[in-house]
Amino acid sequence: MDNFNCTRKIKLLRVFEANEEGLPMDAFEYSESDVLYTQLSLFQKFMKRHSLDKMTALQLFEENEVFEILSDCYESVQLDGDGEILNDIDALLRNNGVTIE
Fold first, then answer.
1. What is the value of pTM for the model shown?
2. What is the pLDDT of residues 44-75, one digit of tens each?
3. What angle in degrees, to the nearest 10, is found between the helix axes of 82-95 and 32-50?
4. Residues 66, 8: contact at Cβ < 8 Å?
5. How far apart are CA 67 and CA 79, in angstroms?
6. Nearest-5° angle of CA 33, CA 37, CA 42?
7. Separation CA 17–CA 68 (nearest Å)
8. For the packed helices 2-20 and 82-95, what is the interaxial angle rounded to 10 degrees?
9. 3-state DSSP call for residue 68?
10. Across 5-30, average pLDDT
């Protein structure tokens, strides 16, 4: 989990650097529905990647607070592609002792 959070903090710093370069902060505004859409999209892609049914995937996400992390780090999640985020989720789960294929 530390590696995941560290990576996200580094990405978030890029957002702040962009703001210092004159980008308006409203460029980084988002709604709750934006966060929910991203969470759902990544959840579905995670299920497909690992051939999991929704209940198994949901249990993994809930037990490892993946939805919360995606919400807390939403700004930095937007800077990466889905593949990189899915790799981060896989690493988080492995670091928490979860075996996934």
1. 0.71
2. 999 999 999 999 999 999 999 999 999 888 87
3. 70
4. no
5. 17
6. 150
7. 25
8. 150
9. helix
10. 54
